Amino acid sequence: MVGDGLDTTTTTAARVLKAGVDSQLTLERLPFLGMLKTYNVDNQVPDSGSAATALFSGVKTVSNAVGLDSTADLEDCSTMEGEARAHSILDDFMEAGRSTGIVTTAHLTDATPAALYAHNNRYWQNDADLPEDADGCEDIASQFMEYAGGVQVVLAGGREDFLPEDTADPEYPDMNGKRTDGRNIIREWVRSHRNDNAEYVWNLPDFREIDTEETDYLLGLFEPGDMRYETDRGGDGALEPTLSTMARKALEILQKNDEGYFLMVEGGQIDDAHHEGTAVKALYDTVAFDAAVQAVVEMVDLRDTLVIVTSDHAQALSFTGYSSRAAFWQGNTILGFTDGLDEDELPFTSLQYSTGPGGIQEAESLAENGTRRNLFEEEGGPDFVYSAGVPKSSSNHAGQDVPVYAAGPMSFMFHRTHEQNYVAHVARMAACLGEYEGDCNRNPRGKKFRKQE
Q1: 57 Cβ neighbours under 8 A, 6+ residues apart
Q2: What is the overall mean pLDDT for the chain?
């Protein structure tokens, strides 16, 4: 399970928001904890594509690569073939005949989920994104159909990457797909599974009607782009399932396979909210991600199922000032002001960013008024843009280590500071796959397994 941009500051702030400083999120109650170094091959601070490739394939790579090692040239498709392609744990499970699933609130073609099945430049999400000279190149949506069309459960956003530009979106008739090649990949998926007890859904009512006992393949794409932030769900006429609801539905289908399964669940909008400087949205999506962790833990048997919860990278959020604990009970939560005023006699919030859109607003205020913003005069709420030190249109990722929480077989292997690509190797070891295929016991029915009593 991956919280995109879920670093220790975001985790702490979400804990305070949910129940106070002395509480715990569900993910914090998992028994084993380590830290992951997220740098990639060419940068001290990674993007989501290279970080997810490290998590899922066990290979550190260059920025903006998904499912490729560092030998690939991301502008030359001929270098993205053969040995440059990283083998993911999703590939391992599919080749072993086990069930697989992908659940995310982001585009299905976004960097984190794409790193499970694609071998590409992370920004080539549909064929309209390909450069003019990209002869013979495939986009990520096409690679989903080619390499991951057999994944049993896929629940995400991103319909626009799978629909042609002359086809209206079913939910928003004034919006069309983005594909210029005329392919309707959703229709292709439905046709390819016409004999497989398969269902495609795009809204909550149809999703609720899915009978998991009778469904073996499920594709759900709930928005043209990313799914909505938790704070924005009330404005969606078609409605969307929550992340925890999607995780539960996925598990109900995947757990029918006695040989085992792999499920990736991503809270993809935490990072997007941070990029916008909207910490309120980021924290509420973190709380929703934690609810998904709780849903998963409740549904699995931790004696034979490894649960890993981590992040791909950190973000530019800070938690500062000297807010009193009494302020929390008086209604001044983590989202509000610290106690007292700054040297300029203006208030400041407990949460701030080192870089981001809030810096632009502060710079504009300085230019117009000679001071930074008077936040007492600002309207709060989910769209409030928190202050930032450096003006940027989007906050930067940050380079500090991120936590990894775990429970179940081999979870004790997370116990100190590790390289980020270590995660995939632990997962393979627990599942007796890849280089660890011959290193497992067998139960009386001949199935390979690791079991933790």
Answers
A1: 67, 86, 87, 88, 89, 115, 421, 424
A2: 93
CB 116, CB 51: distance < 8 Å = no
Task: Specify whether 48 is catalytic.
Answer: yes
Check residue 446 and give its pLDDT: 42
**pLDDT of 450:** 55
Residue in 23, 48, 70, 393 annotated catalytic: 48
Q: Is 385 left (phi over 0), alpha (psi -120 to 50) or beta?
A: beta
Residue 353 backbone dihedrals phi, psi, to 5 degrees: -115, 150
Length of the chain: 453
Q: What angle do CA 94, 98, 100 make, to 5 degrees?
A: 65
122-164, pLDDT tens digit by residue?
999 999 999 988 888 999 999 999 999 999 999 999 999 999 9
What's the mean pLDDT in 197-226? 97
Question: Is 93 in contact with 254 (CB distance < 8 Å)?
Answer: no
What pLDDT is recorded for position 443? 46
d(CA 116, CA 137): 18
Residue with tokens 């392609």: 85
pLDDT band at 332 (very low <50, low <70, confident <90, very high): low
Backbone angles phi, psi at 135, to 5 degrees: -65, 130
What pLDDT, on a 0 to 100 scale, did the predictor assign at position 235? 64
pLDDT tops 80 at residue 250: yes
C-alpha–C-alpha distance, residues 101 and 344, integer Å: 53
Per-residue pLDDT of 338-353, as tens digits, reads 877 778 889 999 999 9
Q: What is the pLDDT of residue 451?
A: 53
Residues 6+ apart with CB under 8 A from 127: 139, 141, 142, 179, 180, 181, 183
pTM above 0.90, yes or no: yes
